[in-house]
C-alpha cells in the first residue's frame, strides 16, 4: 500500500468545519453546514500500532464521515505524526511545521495535549519487546464475559513505579507472609482509558467486563511471580475503576446491550517482583487469545 507523507496525512485529517469560529464578517461568510456521521467502529493504525484518540475526560474522539470521506481533528493527527501546529485566531490561519515548533495558542479542534501526556509506544508489548515506562500502549479486545461478549478499545500506561516495604504493605491492612523476604515489592501507578466499550447482550456493571486484570510480574529470562494487589487500599486500581464508573448519585453505572461507554481511571497496584533482576508488569490483554499472546508486558524502569 502506498504510504502517505506526514504532511499529506495531516491535510487528509483536517476537519475544516471544526476549525472556523465566528469572529469576523468574512469568517461568518465562510461557514457552511455539512452532514456528518461519527463512526466509533473505525480503527486507526499508525506504523502497525492501533491508536486511540481521547479527550482529557477520557471520552473517545471518533472519526467523522462527510460525503464518504473520513476526518479526524487536526490536533490529534499532528501530535501523532510529530508535526508542529499553531492557530492564529486573528487571521483564521493554521500553521504547520515539520520541526514541531508552535506557540502557545491552541488550535480549537480538540483538547490541547498536555506536555506530560504519555507518548504512544511502538513496542510490541511482548516479553522480548516490552512497553517502555511512561509510554502508552493501545489495543482492541473482543472477549467473552459471563453470558455476553464485551468489546472495547484500550490504552494502558505505567506512569510511576515506587519501592514499598513489607512494613508499609502491612500498614495498608494486608497480612504479610513469612516468605516475603524472598521478594521485593513496588507500588505501580497505572492509567487505563477505555473507549467504545459495549456488550452484545444483557446488563452488567459497567466496569467489570472491561477491567484489565493484573497477572503478576515476570523477568526477561521468564521467572514469574503470579499475583498483585490492585484492590482494598486507598487509590487502588480496582477502587479507582469503581469511582470512574459511578453515576451522579454515587451508584455504580450499568451497561446495557447496544450502549457505548467511555471512561478513564488511574490507580495503584502492589506488585511483587524478583529480587535483583529487571521485572515487567504483566497485564491481561485479551482473554480470547492463545495463552502465549494474551498478555502485555510493561517495563518498570
Automatic annotation (TrEMBL):
SUPFAM superfamilies: Copper amine oxidase, domain N (SSF55383). This is Copper amine oxidase family protein. InterPro entries: Cu_amine_oxidase-like_N, Mao_N_sf. Residues 60-101 form the Copper amine oxidase-like N-terminal domain. Transmembrane segments: none annotated. It comes from the Bacteria. Residues 96-127 are annotated as: Disordered. Residues 96-126 have a biased composition (Polar residues). It holds the Pfam family Cu_amine_oxidN1.
Amino acid at each position: 500500500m502506498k504510504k502517505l507523507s506526514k504532511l499529506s496525512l495531516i491535510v487528509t485529517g483536517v476537519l475544516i468545519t471544526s476549525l472556523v469560529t465566528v469572529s469576523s464578517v468574512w469568517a461568518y461568510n465562510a461557514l457552511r453546514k455539512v452532514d456528518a456521521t461519527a463512526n466509533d467502529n473505525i480503527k486507526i493504525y499508525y506504523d502497525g500500532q492501533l491508536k486511540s484518540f481521547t479527550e482529557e475526560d477520557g471520552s473517545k474522539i471518533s472519526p467523522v464521515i462527510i460525503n464518504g470521506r473520513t476526518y479526524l481533528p487536526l490536533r490529534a493527527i499532528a501530535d501523532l505524526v510529530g508535526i508542529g501546529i499553531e492557530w492564529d485566531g486573528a487571521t483564521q490561519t493554521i500553521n504547520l511545521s515539520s520541526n514541531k515548533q508552535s506557540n502557545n495558542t491552541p488550535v480549537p479542534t480538540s483538547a490541547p495535549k498536555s506536555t506530560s501526556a504519555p507518548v504512544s509506544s511502538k513496542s510490541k508489548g511482548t516479553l522480548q519487546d516490552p512497553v517502555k515506562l511512561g509510554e502508552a500502549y493501545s489495543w482492541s479486545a473482543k472477549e467473552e464475559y459471563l453470558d455476553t461478549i464485551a468489546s472495547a478499545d484500550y490504552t494502558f500506561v505505567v506512569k510511576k513505579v515506587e519501592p514499598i516495604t513489607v512494613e508499609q504493605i502491612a500498614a495498608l491492612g494486608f497480612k504479610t507472609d513469612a516468605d516475603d523476604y524472598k521478594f521485593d515489592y513496588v507500588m505501580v501507578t497505572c492509567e487505563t482509558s477505555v473507549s467504545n466499550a459495549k456488550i452484545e447482550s444483557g446488563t452488567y456493571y459497567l466496569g467489570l467486563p472491561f477491567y484489565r486484570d493484573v497477572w503478576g510480574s515476570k523477568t526477561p529470562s521468564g521467572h514469574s511471580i503470579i499475583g498483585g494487589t490492585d484492590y482494598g487500599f486507598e487509590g487502588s486500581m480496582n477502587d479507582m475503576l469503581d469511582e470512574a464508573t459511578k453515576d451522579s448519585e454515587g451508584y455504580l453505572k450499568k451497561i446495557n446491550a447496544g450502549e457505548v461507554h467511555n471512561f478513564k481511571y488511574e490507580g495503584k497496584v502492589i506488585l511483587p517482583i524478583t529480587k535483583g533482576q529487571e521485572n515487567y508488569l504483566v497485564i491481561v490483554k485479551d482473554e480470547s487469545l492463545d495463552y502465549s499472546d494474551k498478555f502485555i508486558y510493561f517495563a518498570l524502569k
